[in-house]
Amino acid sequence: MHTFQRKEKLKSKKVFEDLFVDGKNINEFPIKLIYRKVHFEDATPIKVGVVAPKKKFKDAVDRNRIKRLLREAYRLNKPLIFNNIEGNFAFLFLYLGNRLPTFNEVDVAMKNLFEAFLKKESHESNN
């Protein structure tokens, strides 16, 4: 269950643009989650993209490290989401901090983001 397969990666340019235009978001410093309910042809429940800003992190090595940490935190915590959602979602994780994070910081923020997401989604589906 703790895998991050190729089919779970968000690759569609159109979905990326749609996320920025009319996606909902949740902040849990140092990560921001932008998400949107979508329909995927391959029936994958969630597709994920990760972003580290080039403006704050000039070195590609640093951006890649941040993205690796975000993907790993997602991979380890995704059972929290998979068992509790209905429908398909596109997720985009943006790193907001100004310095390189530790894995622990990212992991805690990811868990808090997932809790907030589930709370918000269950609230919206009940209305």
Description:
- Keywords: Endonuclease, Hydrolase, Nuclease, RNA-binding, tRNA processing.
- Its EC number is 3.1.26.5.
- Pfam families: Ribonuclease_P.
- One of its GO terms (biological process) is tRNA 5'-leader removal.
- GO terms for molecular function: 3'-tRNA processing endoribonuclease activity; ribonuclease P activity; tRNA binding.
- This protein has a single domain (6-126), classed as Ribosomal Protein S5, domain 2 (2-Layer Sandwich), CATH 3.30.230.
- The protein is 45% helix and 21% strand.
- The protein contains 3 helices and 4 strands.
- It has helices at 13-22, 60-82, 103-126, and strands at 24-28, 31-38, 46-51, 88-95.
- The chain is globular.
- The N and C termini lie far apart (31 Å).
- With 127 residues, it is of the alpha+beta class.
- The longest helix is centred in the last third of the chain and has 24 residues, at 103-126.
- A 4-stranded mixed beta sheet has the order 1-2-4-3, with helices on both faces.
Number of strands: 4
Structural class: alpha+beta
Order of helices and strands: HEEEHEH
Main β sheet profile: 4 strands, mixed
Looking at the structure, what is the overall shape? globular
CATH architecture: 2-Layer Sandwich
Backbone CA Rg: 14 Å
Distance between the termini: 31 Å
**Overall CATH class:** Alpha Beta
- Helix percentage range: 40-55%
Number of helices: 3
Oligomer: single chain
Mean of all residue-level pLDDT scores: 91
Q: Tell me what portion of residues adopts beta-strand conformation.
A: 15-25%
As residue ranges, the low-confidence spans are: none
Strand order of the largest sheet: 1-2-4-3
Tally of separate domains = 1
User: Would you tell me which CATH topology applies?
Assistant: Ribosomal Protein S5, domain 2
Enzyme class: hydrolase
Subunit structure: Consists of a catalytic RNA component (M1 or rnpB) and a protein subunit.
Keywords: Endonuclease, Hydrolase, Nuclease, RNA-binding, tRNA processing
Family: Belongs to the RnpA family.
